[in-house]
Design goal:
Elements: E1 19-23, E2 30-36, H1 40-51, E3 56-62, E4 70-77, H2 83-115
Antiparallel strand pairs: 1-2, 2-4, 3-4
């Protein structure tokens, strides 16, 4: 089979850098980031977080080939901040968002344990009507 070993998809080799930055010479205030040993999951989250920032003019990512474990993220800013600084801020905000999501997830499951058993629902719900209770995006 042509697929690489599973561990090669996420374990960095000795001396391998997780991020490579290339300044774009044709587009002003733009850079291309090659992020190795990652896939669409992180690429799409970073792209969405970067696009939510007002200084960003363009952000996009691509996975050049499914057998190669890296993606390429391109960011262009308005010039008030560098693409490297935007990516660093986006990573910080994304980590904070995921930490908040984890805390809320753990809190909800602790409520479930405290309330006892939940009635069986064939569709996987809790038997509540639509629009009642907490929404899973209720930050």
């Amino acid at each position: 089979m042509n697929a690489p070993n599973r561990f090669e998809l996420f374990v960095l080799e000795d001396g391998e850098k997780p991020v490579e930055v290339t300044e774009d010479t044709k587009i002003p205030n733009a850079a291309t980031f090659k992020i190795v040993k990652q896939d669409h999951t992180l690429g799409n989250m970073l792209r969405a977080q970067v696009l939510s920032m007002p200084q960003v003019l363009f952000a996009g990512y691509k996975v050049p080939h499914p057998l190669h474990p890296y993606f390429v993220l391109k960011i262009q800013t308005d010039g008030s901040i560098t693409p490297q600084a935007i990516l660093e801020q986006a990573c910080t905000k994304l980590i904070a968002t995921l930490s908040t999501l984890e805390a809320k997830f753990k809190r909800e499951f602790s409520f479930k344990d405290a309330e006892g058993t939940v009635p069986e629902d064939p569709y996987g719900g809790t038997g509540q009507a639509w629009g009642t209770g907490k929404d899973y995006l209720d930050f």
